[in-house]
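Field reference: sequence -> structure
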Amino acid sequence: MELLQLVIGGLANGCIYGLVALGFVMIYKASEGVNFAQGDMMMLGAFIALGLGNSDQMGLPFGLAMILAMVLMFGIGWGVERVVVRQIFGQPQFALVILTIALGFVFRFVAGSIWGYTPLVLETPFAGQNLRGGGIVISLADLVTIGVTFVLTVALWAFFAFTRIGLAAQAASQNQMAAYIVGVPVMRINSLIWGLSGAVATVAGVLYATRGAIDPNIGLLGIKAFAAAVIGGLGSLPGALIGGLIIGVVEPIAGRYAPGELAKMSPYIIMLLVLITRPGGLFSQIQMKKV
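Structure field:
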């Protein structure tokens, strides 16, 4: 029963990692770049939802606060691409890495300046509600996290697989110049994907906040989410979720049964093993490029 309880809690944690990893994958699928500020976008989205929804702040209903936070973070993601990222278009990918790491520091500073660095709790309609059966206790927040994550993953997979914008984004990631020549609006698509990644990060942040207190440093969770994206394969949306679930389940089990600090190291040990055995990830999508 103890092991099963750890697995259930781990699945919920893994869903959070997977949602943040989805942001990494979306931007990679659109531009073959990596946004290392994705975890901090998750943090900022959670704080915006808290500012809109908590009774001691704006006091909006939970659902409305979450939707407005997603809209605002879509705008922030879109604006970051238009105002900042677009300025280094055509530069080596290393430039984007450094830029997004710096953006992460900016987001943490902004959140700390507005909401402070003391952990805060997001008020939710299902806080403290648990389901019990067979000696196992499952929080309603965990069930909501798991359900929302799977629905959102399927929706994003369908978006990239079947919509014209999703297919155009994948074409742009293969060769941005060639896609531009044949009429694909590469710049607008990049802005859209960055905005969408901000909205998805907000969902991840709100779900994380339903399970505990938040502070500006929770954005560092993005490091584990990046490990999840690498494990699943940076080009695969389902792979990002599965990578997150693997880390989420292994972490609490290692913390309970393994010696020392192995629990904290386990995500990166798994990532190293995957990179050694399958450099492209478990669900790598290696494609030929025409030049």
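Note: The chain is about 70% helix and 5% strand.
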